[in-house]
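Tutorial handout. Part one gives the primary structure; part two gives the three-dimensional structure as tokens.
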Amino acid sequence: MRISLIQSALVWEQPSANYMHFENIICQLKFKTDLVILPELFNSGFSMRTECFAEQEQGFGLNWLKRLASQNHVVIMGSLAIKTALGIKNRLHIVLPDETCFFYDKKHLFRMGHEHLHYSPGSLQTVFTFMDFQIMGLICYDLRFPVWSRNHLKKDAFKYDVLVYVANWPERRHYAWKHLLIARAIENQAYVIGVNRIGTDGNNIAHAGESMLIDPNGQILLNCGLHNATVMTATLDKSTLQILRNEFPVGKDADAFTLDNPN
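Part two.
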């Protein structure tokens, strides 16, 4: 499975400009990749002014994702602010080439940025299957909570093979970003992907990027670097992952955890 990480600056609170920018990039990836991953809140940046840009559940953003996934024969993952009956969600959309849709609502809201005052948390995880890989998506601050990210064996099969984080992770905490991603890959025996933005947002917070792909041993297979606007693509091999899990079956000795809202 070919995966493409899009590391880019975001135009603050200007959805139309961001949609146009990412559409140009995605269209250039047609026939070159299978899965495209965008940063967190890719149409607006990490703004709390949700009254200005939060969309309806079946609004422009989701239809935009469906159209581009279908036209370019790719899966697209990216989060948007979405109005729901339970409040506004920071929602990671996953759209397949046939326009099948899945979503995950961010559970851990970033208190230090007042996200918990403007968004409502989610409570359920989402795992989808594509090209024989089980893939789970989470969002930014979720990275700091290993139990929520935890992989587990069920009937000798892991819950997921690939764990994706989309983010607006500040530069001043970029050391934590890198090392937490590595830790999640090792402890969960899975490929881990982190896609982060670059540039300075409307709150004068700088973002360095360093989007990356990490293998289950914690080795960095792909690194978009610091402050680079770039698209990088790599191929994931399911057989390589399975060999590692068979040779070093640490999952069979993993501790059991109970969450308040398990699924």
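Part three, for discussion. DSSP finds five helices and 16 strands in the chain. The chain has a mean pLDDT of 96.
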